[in-house]
Amino acid sequence: MTAVANYLFAHRAGGAFILRVDDTDAARNERRYERSVSQDAEWLGLRFDEGPGIGGSYGPYRQSERGALYASAAEQLLAGGGAYRCFCSEAELDQARAEADAAGRPFRYDRRCASIDPAEAARRAAAGEPFAVRLHAPAGAIEIADAARGVVVIPDGAIDDLVLLRSDGTATYNFATAVDDAQMDITHVIRGEDHIANTAGQLAILRALGWREPRYAHCALLLDANGHKLSKRTGAESIADLRADGYPPEAVVNYVALLVCSAPEGVDEVASLSGLASRFSLSMLSSGQQRFDRAKLDYLSRRQLERLDPLDLASRVGRVLELRGVGFHPAQLTALADGLRGSHTLSEAADEAEQILKRRPAPSGVDDEVRAVLGLFCKARSGWHEPYLAPKEAEELLAEVSDAAKEIGVARGTVLHTLRHALTGAERGVGMPYVVAAVERNDALVRCGCEDGR
């Protein structure tokens, strides 16, 4: 959600949309996660202006490669008294956490190292004693000027003495993010409301450094149908899952954009990426709970598929069929494209196309009426020598068959139902002109029981 919001805002404001990789936690850092983010963004049409592999004026864009900047900022805080060296071992901190748990209270660092004389702390550090660097948390409440929510007040004492640098010298998320926001001239940050506490900590760091603060906006989290935060444990779907389900990227972006910033009254919800950007506003960011609504996504998906150029839709359906190993002639999908517009997803459209393209034997054990209709169709289709027809030509052919059937007392509805069942094996589906146009001539004759399809 927040990536879409940041992209739309950046493009509305004429700014830059930046990919910065927060990879300072070595235990959790894997390059595959970075690739996944880039691939998802590329599929959605969210083009990064700066980032790893892209370049820009503020690189490097991986925090693991920016350690010298964090060390310098930490030294500045230590020199100015905004931070101190903490020599507590992991065992001591674990014991303090256990005592807090036993007492039923949240763990807060007791600032035991804050009272160490800075000169003494420097001497111990120079002697090789391991230490972390902690922020001297400010007294008093912290106010966040939230562009979407107004002023958000974090009460006095809510911010702990955050660890800025670990004992191995690596920066923590909040410290690296605060430093990078200032060093990279980040003007605006849009993130989920679950980051409000992080924002307060980052503001405390920036204010201790005396550096410029970006403007923050916090949007509502996306919850599942039961009101729980989306996660894999609750069956939440990733962008890759939605892509595999056949949703076009235009629909996914459209859906997410409406969650973070609803369409103005009287304006069509369905829009292109540029259209969504043109109407995006920080003041309209959603602050109430948002729940994943599959029906709404399906609706937007169908509407977006309807907007596609027929050749584009045919190409996308073709790629799905190729992944399934289904063979086809391009002319078949071109003929079907308009008929597939009512599908909710590309997978659904591919299912419909596959049902039509699949070769099948002629129906057996048919009654005289069905046999008569199939015979009329075979006679008519034999007269059209092209392997594939345009839908308009197929419509003319069906009219010819229907007129001939009427003369022997068979209604048009019966003709269409009979031919659909013979050509596709289904009871319903896309309009019959599209079916007749897409089934190759000789194959159609075989399906309808003509001798050897000639």
Write a brief structural summary:
This protein has helices at residues 2-13, 31-44, 67-80, 90-102, 118-126, 173-183, 196-209, 239-244, 249-260, 273-278, 294-307, 310-324, 330-336, 346-357, 368-382, 391-406, 412-424, 432-438, 441-447, and strands at 83-86, 132-135, 142-146, 150-154, 163-165, 188-192, 215-219, 222-223, 290-291. It is mainly alpha-helical. Strands 1-2-5 form a 3-stranded antiparallel β-sheet. Strands 3-4 form a two-stranded antiparallel sheet.
List the keywords:
454 residues, mainly alpha, 8% strand
Percent of sequence in beta strands: 5-15%
Mean pLDDT: 92
Q: What class do helices, strands and sheet pairing give? A: mainly alpha
The stretches of 5 or more residues where confidence is low (pLDDT under 50) are 232-236
- Order of adjacent strands in the largest pleated sheet: 1-2-5
Number of helices: 19
- Please give the share of residues in helix: 40-55%
Verbal overview:
- With 454 residues, the protein is mainly α.
- Among the domains are: 50 residues; 86 residues, Arc Repressor Mutant, subunit A.
- The protein has 19 helices and 9 strands.
- The strands form 4 sheets. A 3-stranded antiparallel β-sheet has the order 1-2-5.
- The longest helix has 16 residues.
- The protein starts with a helix and ends in a 7-residue tail after the last helix.
